[in-house]
Prior knowledge:
Elements: E1 43-45, E2 52-55, H1 70-83, H2 104-108, E3 114-118, H3 124-132, E4 137-141, H4 145-157, E5 163-166, H5 170-177, E6 183-189, H6 209-216, E7 217-227, H7 230-242, E8 246-248, H8 265-272, E9 278-284
Parallel strand pairs: 3-4, 3-6, 4-5, 6-7
Antiparallel strand pairs: 1-2, 7-9, 8-9
The site of S-adenosylmethionine has 20 residues, from loops.
Binding site for substrate: 196, 228, 264-267
Enzyme class: transferase
Binding site for S-adenosyl-L-methionine: 117, 142, 169, 192
Amino acid sequence: MPERDESQQPTGEPTTDPTAEATPAQQESPAHPEPAQPVDGTPRASETSPKPRFRDAPVSFVRRSHRMSDAQEKAWEENSPLYLVEVPRSFASTSVDPEVEVDPAELFGRAAPLTVEIGSGQGHAIVHAASAHPERNFLAIEVYRAGLARTVFNAHSAGLTNLRLVDANAPEVLSTFLPAGSVDEVWIFFPDPWHKKRHTKRRMVKEGFPEVLHRALSDGGRVRLASDWEDYALQMRGVLDAADGFEREFDGEWAPRFDGRVMTAFERKGLEKGREIRDLVYRRTPLAQD
Ligand SMILES: C[S@@+](CC[C@H](N)C(=O)[O-])C[C@H]1O[C@@H](n2cnc3c(N)ncnc32)[C@H](O)[C@@H]1O
C-alpha cells in the first residue's frame, strides 16, 4: 500500500474547510469495490461480448473509502456539478466507456491550451495553477473522492472557471476519453510509489505508458513528473528515455524543480524522511516512423 498523508493542511488553507477528512470512524469499505480481478487501462472484452469486462493489468491505486463527512457531502453536492465531468462507465466505478470521447472546448466553454494533472490528490497544485493561469484550461484526474471534494471546495472558493475534474482511472482517460493530441501538458507529481517489490507492477509510469501519453499530448507538448522515491524516479526516467516520441527537456541528471509545482503533504513528508525530490520534464516529438 503506498504511503498517504492527506492530513496535513498547507498554510493559507481555510480553517473552516468543510472538506476536511472524514474521521476513521466515518470511513468504511468502498461502496463500489473494484472487480476482484486486477485491472488497468486496457479493458478486455470477453469472447461472447464485445464490451470490455475486465482490465488486463493491475491499476495504480487502491480506492479508499468514498464516505465523506456531512460537511464534505454538502460541499460536494452543492459545488461538484460545476466542476465534475460526467464520465460514462463500462465495467467498474473508475472505468471509462472506451466508445465515448469528450470535447474539451465544450467542457470548458472555450478552446485553450489544456494541462492535465494525473493523481491530483487534494488539488493544491492544479488549483494554484488554474488561479495563476486563467488563460489555460486545467483538468484534474483523481479517484480519491475526499481529494476531489477538497479540490472542488478550493476551486469554488477561488471562483475558478477554468478547472474541471474527472473521477476515473487516468490511463483510460488519456487513452480514449480525451481526443488524441488534445493535451498541452501532463503533470504526474508524486505518483503512488508502490515501493515493495511485489507491488512495483502497479506503478503507473512503466513500459506502455508513454504510448498513452503520446496519444493524448499534442506535438511539442510536455510531461512533467516528480517523485521522492529514487527507484521510481529512475524507472520513470528510464521508461521515458527509452520511449519513441519523447525527448528530455533538461540537462544533467534531473530537471530543475518546476516552479508551478507547489509543496504538497506528500513532498513535505518525503523531505521530512530525508528523501530527495527528483523532477523530470520531457517533450513530445513525432514518432520515429512518422
Ligand atoms: C501519492 S498521491 C499524490 C497526490 C498529489 N499529486 C500530491 O502531490 O499531493 C497519488 C494520487 O494519485 C492517485 N492515483 C493513483 N493512480 C491513479 C489513477 N490510475 N487514476 C487516477 N488517480 C490515480 C491516488 O488516488 C492519489 O491520490
